[in-house]
C-alpha cells in the first residue's frame, strides 16, 4: 500500500505555519531525540503542521516556553489516548449490552456499578 499523504520539507512547512525554518529545525532536533527514525529531518505530514500551529499558539498567544509546551503536548496526547480507550470500552460495553439485552431483557450497560443502581455525587 502506497502512502499518498502530502509531505512537506521544513522550509515549506515553515511557510505554511508562519514560522522561521530555523525555529522548526530547533523543534525537530529537540523532538528527534525521542524518535527512532534515522533521518535527521523527515518530511512533515499535515498532522505535524497542526501540532506546529498549536505550538505557535501556545508560545505566542499564551506565552509558554518550550518546557511548558512539552507538558501541554504530553497531557494532550495522554487525554487523546484515554479518550480512545474510553471510546473503545464504550463500544465494547454497547455490544455486550445488546447481547445481554436480547438474552435477558435487561436494558442498561454496567459502568462500574450494579445495573439499576444509581451513583451518588
Characterization of the model:
By secondary structure, the chain is mainly α. The chain has 2 domains: 1-63, Multidrug-efflux Transporter Regulator, Chain: A, Domain 2; 66-103. Helix content is 61%, strand content 0%.
Output the keywords:
2 domains, mainly alpha, single chain, Multidrug-efflux Transporter Regulator, Chain: A, Domain 2
Describe what is shown at a glance:
With 121 residues, the protein is mainly α.
Secondary structure: helix percent: 55-70%
Q: Quickly give the structural class.
A: mainly alpha
How many individual helices?
A: 4
Low-confidence segments: 112-121
Mean pLDDT reading? 78
Q: Could you state the oligomeric state of the chains shown?
A: single chain
Measured on Cα atoms, how large is the radius of gyration? 22 Å
Biggest sheet statistics: none
Q: What is the name of the CATH class of the largest domain?
A: Mainly Alpha
- Hey, roughly how much beta strand do the residues contain? under 5%
CATH topology of the largest domain: Multidrug-efflux Transporter Regulator, Chain: A, Domain 2
The beta-strand count equals 0
Q: Give the SSE string.
A: HHHH
Q: Span from first to last CA?
A: 51 Å
Question: Judging by the overall fold, what is the CATH architecture of the largest domain?
Answer: Orthogonal Bundle
Shape designation: elongated
Tell me the number of structural domains. 2
